[in-house]
Automatic annotation (TrEMBL):
Lineage: Bacteria, Bacillati, Actinomycetota, Actinomycetes, Streptosporangiales
Gene responsible for this protein: fabG_4
A Pfam family this chain is assigned to: adh_short_C2
Ketoreductase domain boundaries: 7-204
Listed PANTHER family: 3-OXOACYL-(ACYL-CARRIER-PROTEIN) REDUCTASE (PTHR42879), 3-OXOACYL-[ACYL-CARRIER-PROTEIN] REDUCTASE FABG (PTHR42879:SF2)
InterPro entries: KR_dom, NAD(P)-bd_dom_sf, Sc_DH/Rdtase_CS, SDR, SDR_fam
SUPFAM superfamilies: NAD(P)-binding Rossmann-fold domains (SSF51735)
UniProt xrefs under NCBIfam families: PRK05653.1-3 (NF004198), PRK07231.1 (NF005559), PRK12826.1-2 (NF009466)
Name of the protein described by the UniProt record: 3-oxoacyl-ACP reductase FabG
Species of origin: Actinocorallia aurantiaca
Family: Belongs to the short-chain dehydrogenases/reductases (SDR) family.
């Protein structure tokens, strides 16, 4: 299904994990891609893989906490492809620690990447989208932002903030033809989660009614739905991709 044929999409944090999976799904749907990541070489490697599969890709180094860098990323997409049709704010980090042990720097780092980074992406992408009269922004939150997880006061706060930001942005931009939605993934099989101790992994799986973790591409397909015209009458929504966990 060429749901994104002729459209350009920026994906942040796209060199690995969920971001790369979203890029693969979007490439399969015909999108022209900007693969943005703070790791420039990793972005180039991911782009090479996608180009080998037939995709049109521009790798861009971008620190999402750097305003000039985010503005340049959006400008590069517009210059290369002529439009900015989709933005997926996916870049993220974790700095897990309990309240007693978490440092102020660890708290600020997570808030900067997730909240400030998402806000910058929304700001500069929407400036271009409003000129076009259309566009779709997909923000990656987390189920942690709904229920709160131990050792993640920073991450849970940031991911909950993304939900509020999504709804406020959706209200501001709807009359301009720009939609803003969010995804809250649950347990997803990535290199990070597969590194968990077996007992912790089993404990997390026990809380998933479907009895398994998501594959990254399953999050990617939901992002495709929100990016495409299949969701043309949806804005300000938050879709949980959790296998029923924390429903």
């Amino acid at each position: 299904m060429d749901l994104l044929e002729g459209r350009s999409a920026i994906i942040t944090g796209a060199a690995q994990g969920i971001g790369l999976a979203i890029a693969r799904v979007f490439a399969g749907a015909g999108a022209r891609l900007v693969i943005a990541d703070i790791d420039e070489q990793a972005a180039k490697d991911a782009a090479e893989e996608l180009v080998a599969g037939g995709a049109t890709v521009l790798p861009v180094r971008c620190d999402v906490t750097d305003e000039d860098g985010v503005e340049a990323m959006v400008a590069a997409c517009a210059a290369e492809f002529g439009s900015v049709d989709v933005l997926v704010n996916n870049a993220g980090i974790t700095r897990d620690a309990t309240l007693r042990k978490m440092t102020a720097e660890q708290f600020r780092q997570v808030m900067d990447v997730h909240l400030f980074g998402t806000w910058l992406g929304m700001k500069y992408a929407s400036l271009k989208m409003r000129e076009q009269g259309n566009g779709s922004i997909v923000n990656i939150s987390s189920i942690s932002g709904k229920v709160g997880l131990v050792g993640q006061t920073n991450y849970s706060a940031a991911k909950a903030g993304i939900v509020g930001m999504t709804k406020a942005g959706a209200k501001e931009l709807a009359h301009l033809g720009v939609r803003v939605n969010a995804i809250q993934p649950g347990l997803v099989r990535t290199a990070m989660t597969e590194a968990l101790r077996p007992d912790i992994w089993a404990e997390k799986l026990a809380g998933v009614p479907m009895g398994r973790a998501a594959e990254p591409e399953e999050v990617g397909r939901v992002a495709l739905f929100l990016a495409s015209d299949l969701s043309s009458y949806m804005t300000g929504t938050v879709l949980e991709v959790t296998g029923g966990r924390h429903m």
